[in-house]
Design brief:
single chain; mainly alpha; elongated
């Protein structure tokens, strides 16, 4: 007699505010380094305007909102930086981007998994 194996369900580790802050604090210096490189004329992902005026300030604001427990409800959370990576120019999508990939991962966790 052949018995069917039951699929094991595993509890996915919840994505905590502490994990979110850690990810933000790892990503901000990467973005700042990219900004410094753009200012020195080095070609890469993101423009000076995108990094300086929107992405870095948005990430820093999220650190503060997380610390003060003032994040918006999950159903209305959107990470504008991810939209810049996906839809706007200045990103080298063919090669892949550490910064871009981290922003996309962060957006996914922020919008779907963060407590």
């Amino acid at each position: 007699m052949c018995r069917k194996k039951k699929k094991m369900t595993t509890m996915k580790e919840s994505y905590t505010k502490q994990m979110f802050i850690k990810d933000l604090k790892e990503l901000i210096p990467i973005c700042e380094e990219e900004l410094n490189q753009r200012k020195q004329g080095v070609v890469g992902d993101g423009t000076i305007g995108q990094l300086e005026s929107f992405i870095i300030p948005e990430l820093k604001k999220l650190v503060e909102q997380t610390k003060t427990d003032t994040l918006p409800p999950r159903e209305v959370r959107r990470l504008g930086s991810a939209e810049i990576v996906i839809f706007n120019g200045g990103w080298n999508h063919q090669v892949g981007s550490l910064m871009g990939d981290k922003i996309i991962d962060l957006a996914d966790n922020y919008e779907k998994n963060l407590e």
